Amino acid sequence: MKFASLKRLSLAIGTSVLIGGTLTACFPLVVGGMAGGALVATDRRTSGAQLEDEGIELRAASRIRTNVGDRVHVNLTSYNRQVLLTGEVPSAQDKQLVEQIVSRVENVTSVVNELAVMGNSTLTQRSSDTFVTGRVKAMLVDARDLSLNAFKVVTERGTTYLMGRVTQREADRATEVVRSTPGVQKVIRMFEIISEEELARMLPKPDAPPAAAKPAGG
Predict the structure, then answer these.
(1) How many whole angstroms from its chain centre is CA 118?
(2) Is 50 part of a structural domain of the chain?
(3) pLDDT at 22
(4) Could you tell me the pTM of the whole model?
């Protein structure tokens, strides 16, 4: 069991480091969509919402680069048209400006502005946040009563943000799991709560048992 858990942790951390390292090495703006095709079928957003979220992140990042330049470090994560802003900006004016830019992007319904007015985080801090995100994902995988693909996980300076369309039961259970993850200093929930009945409708129906064979000559 320990070996399996270590394998899941290594996979989650490795994927997070690969994606996070590739993006942060190229841009001061990091977009959080990056939905793989294999996950589309298990994502609780509609396929249209998933495409819109990716479009929102790309358009918002482009407009921030155009209007603010590289003096800010902004992470953009859109989930079901709700945008989370994390990272660092040099002034309160820049924090407000970034929020205004993102709020005007097509299809954005709300913006949660968690930008900090301070100097940009170090590579060491960002690597630590990526590692913590990987640990959180591994913990969610180990929690057999939760589905990792139902959650979007973002960690910024030790604070872990949780997004997703989940039931109250799943929200409470995930919060409990994440709070117990080493390295997580604070948990902020940004869930869209759905009913257990709505969740049941989303889940794939089990295959019907094969019909019994009729006896020969019957």
Answers:
(1) 24
(2) yes
(3) 36
(4) 0.79
